[in-house]
Design goal:
alpha+beta, 8 helices, elongated
Length: about 260
Amino acid sequence: MNEKDFAELAAGAALHALSTDDEKRYRRALAEHPEWAAVADIEADSAALLGEGVTPVAPSPGIRAALLAQIAHTPQGDGDDRDAGVHPSPEAAAPSVPETPGVPETRAPRRWTRLAFALAACLALLVGVGVGAVALNAQLTRPASVVALQEIEAAGDAQQATVELDGGATATAHWSGSVGKAVLVTDGLPETDAGKTYELWFVRGEEPIAAGVFDPEDGAATALLEGEMRAGDAIAVTVEQEGGSPTGQPTTDPVIVIPTA
């Protein structure tokens, strides 16, 4: 399983939509690749944001009973008459039967099967639209770093490299020359001191090029490097003042360096 496949499973897990087999695959992959935990966290956060952005509306408890009652009491003419555009009179639609004392009145069977099917189709359509909207919103609200990571993983020249840091933290760089993007995924990265942040760099030859800042959450982060990656660029991270280096150049030694060539 690659990281793109895992991201799709993580999205399903966040929505509680995985089958039993897929749930097992997801848990097994997470155990085998702890560096992917950041992807799972992002998917879970996205699902939570979707839930927070929608005001729950509870349907009326009697809506189902009311619909069925309406169906049962709606006269239905013969199917052929309806198809031909003929609208029978109320008397024809519900012919009367002479009453016999002591015998309950008998009515012609109601042809409501078609209406029931139509109602079921409408309900299914509404459910489908709702599920589709959730899936679409989940896709549209994905962070740019996750989208970029999926683009990289889908590329034929996708590559990655992992380094282990002091204290057991890991950092994995994902990049693709054809896509021109790079993403750094960290796990166990310590928090910076107050007023500090991590800054990303492309190191092109001897020249460091600022590529954005990021702050891990519980040691995990998935950060997209800003700007276009070029062949041979190394990926580096330094600790800078909040907002990034004011000079546009690193002010500290890098805590992460990952060569890509």
